[in-house]
Amino acid sequence: MNYRRLANTGIYVSELCLGAMTFGGVGMFEAIGALGQEEANTLVHRSLDAGINFFDTANVYSVGRSEEMLGSALGARRPDVIVATKVRGRMGDGPNQIGLSRVHIMQECDASLRRLGTDYIDLYQIHGHDPDTDIQETLGALNDLVRAGKVRYIGCSNLTAWQLMKALGVSREHGLAEFISTQSYYSIAGRELEREMIPLIDDQGLGLLPWSPLAGGFLSGKFTREGAADPDARRTKFDFPPVDETRGHDIIDVMREVATAHEVSVAQIALAWLLHQPAVTSVIIGAKRLEQLDDNLGSVDVALRDDELERLNTVSALSSEYPGWMQVLQADRAPGTTRNWDQYTKK
Predict the structure, then answer these.
(1) Measuring CA to CA, which residue among 3, 29, 6, 28 is closest to residue 15?
(2) Into how many domains does the chain fold?
(3) Which letter does DSSP use for residue 81 in this model?
């Protein structure tokens, strides 16, 4: 296992992070995974043995049960790892049991600490944007948790680039703790993050923690143009995140060829592609069975050649959008040349 520095902090996290969304199986999360404590223990201990020191969960995963199970599985190993969890989602029927207000954040941080069986959270992340709460209130509450020692670092998830940059600006203006990372959807079948967010991440020195690197199982190798090879595959019950399946299958065709050349699974190629992206810090993987976890762990040993990366990048490339294509045209600064404009000039 390799380790990468988390943003500009002094801590290092494994390049794979075990996500605990499959733990518990309460409510809507039953379609994602319904692992019991013994099964969760097996996955967590196997991850630790493989060198994973980074674990991610959220208070809404199975209404807190995921946090409880992760904390129990880590047990005495808690000081050896980096634990991340999240706040924002609804945790009760009351009007203030959702969102990013000071009230909800303070209540939920204490509840997460109890469920995890710990007195600090390494990375506390907002789970998305809350349009009803001013970002300064949210950041002020998070800053107080950092100052109180309940939280070491703060991060965000599922924000747009402008929302994240605004939050960084507010933190700097008022001397508050800053988001050090974003947990965002990113896969070879979903590269929209490259339009605005990854340039921001690079510019601001943030960590990137991709979730759903297999696009909800679409890139696992179980899905073909004819349908799912495994009728129990998660995506047959929970079709998320959205994928352009026609384009996706074209990507998988190339992935299968590369996987065959390396004698690995299609899923390992999907994870390896992400691990080859410079902006990525740690890829969040999830599993319901030990063999799935073991297969995912093998991705760290897959070294893609430059020509293979070029093929994968080409088949999965985003279509050009404004103002991106205009900035590419304007990037040619060589005196007397207009190379980038030639493709638009009628001969």
Answers:
(1) 3
(2) 1
(3) S
